[in-house]
């Protein structure tokens, strides 16, 4: 008889359309003897060619992937909704309009401000895949309803004094308290503030887990404080152990890393060509 099944939980972020690395993660899940749950902190799509399929896979497997919205998901939603509105105003179905432009995604995305912004941020491969899939509205609505933040309680962690707070970009404590949407998706100014919620003496330790800004782009003195090399691509716990940055800049490094909840053990996956 098979023994007890334990749930192993991991964080990762900023995959940016790399299907090869995502397949390695899926294989890791399939090969694991324990049940695996992954918290993904946004930016599955854009830049790489497989982002749209990666998003669909994670959305179709909510028991395995806890999917938190990133700024690139938000860019895609805005661009897609603008496209659908333009199609309606012009009197075309979304597929008819795409055919009219012979699916030239760059010309199509030049038709509106949100589409241009998405294209400027590497969104063309994702947008084209959505066009070729018939422009389903359901995936747009589902992506738009993704949570901006997530909290893992002490009971879930199994420790008395640790709580994990998750959002894509990271933010200031007051922005978390006020549920500041733009900050949680885009902020790059929070690095210098420790993640402390100590209004009460017995308030547990909180650790902010985020992506969005590559580890090697963190201020140098924070990396030194964390005893991490300034050229590192590995996720790093920094700012007095109150923040965990997951962004390995996958597009450049060809590496994605899963960080295990509680232990901070890291499992690295690298592209064969890297």
Quick take:
With 274 residues, this protein is α/β, with parallel strands linked by helices.
Structure description:
The chain has 274 residues and is of the alpha/beta class. The chain has 13 helices and 10 strands. The strands form 2 sheets. It has a 5-stranded mixed β-sheet. The chain has a 5-stranded mixed β-sheet with strand order 4-5-6-8-7. Strand 1, helix 1 and strand 2 (35-40) form a beta-alpha-beta unit. Helix 3 runs antiparallel to helix 6. It is globular and about 60 Å long. The termini are far apart. The relative contact order is 0.15.
Tags for this entry?
single chain; 274 residues; alpha/beta; five-stranded mixed β-sheet; 13 helices; 10 strands; globular
SSE topology sketch:
Blueprint: E1 7-12, H1 19-31, E2 35-40, H2 51-59, E3 65-67, H3 71-90, H4 94-100, H5 105-109, H6 113-120, H7 124-132, H8 137-144, E4 149-152, H9 154-157, E5 162-167, H10 173-177, H11 181-186, E6 205-210, H12 220-225, E7 236-238, E8 243-245, H13 250-253, E9 255-260, E10 266-270
Parallel strand pairs: 1-2, 2-3, 5-6, 6-8
Antiparallel strand pairs: 1-9, 4-5, 7-8, 9-10
Helix pairs in contact: 3-6, 3-8
């Amino acid at each position: 008889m098979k023994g007890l099944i334990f749930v192993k939980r991991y964080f990762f972020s900023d995959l940016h359309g790399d299907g090869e690395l995502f397949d390695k993660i899926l294989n890791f899940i399939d090969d694991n003897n324990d049940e695996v749950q992954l918290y993904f902190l946004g930016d599955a799509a854009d830049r790489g060619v497989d982002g749209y399929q990666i998003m669909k896979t994670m959305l179709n497997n909510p028991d395995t992937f806890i999917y938190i919205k990133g700024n690139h998901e938000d860019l895609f939603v805005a661009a897609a909704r603008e496209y659908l509105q333009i199609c309606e105003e012009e009197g075309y179905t979304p597929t008819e309009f795409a055919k009219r432009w012979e699916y030239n995604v760059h010309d199509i995305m030049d038709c509106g401000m949100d589409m241009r912004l998405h294209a400027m941020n590497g969104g063309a491969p994702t947008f084209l895949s959505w066009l070729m899939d018939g422009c389903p509205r359901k995936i747009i609505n589902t992506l738009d309803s993704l949570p901006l933040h997530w909290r893992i309680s002490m009971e879930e962690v199994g420790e008395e004094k640790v709580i994990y707070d998750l959002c894509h970009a990271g933010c200031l404590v007051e922005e978390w308290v006020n549920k500041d949407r733009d900050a949680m998706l885009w902020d790059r100014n929070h690095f210098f503030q420790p993640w402390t919620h100590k209004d009460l003496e017995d308030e547990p330790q909180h650790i902010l887990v985020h992506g969005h800004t590559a580890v090697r782009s963190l201020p140098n003195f924070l990396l030194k404080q964390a005893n991490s090399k300034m050229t590192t691509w590995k996720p790093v716990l920094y700012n007095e152990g109150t923040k965990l940055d997951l962004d390995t800049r996958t597009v450049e490094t060809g590496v994605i890393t899963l960080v295990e909840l509680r232990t901070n053990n890291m499992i690295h996956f690298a592209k064969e060509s890297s």
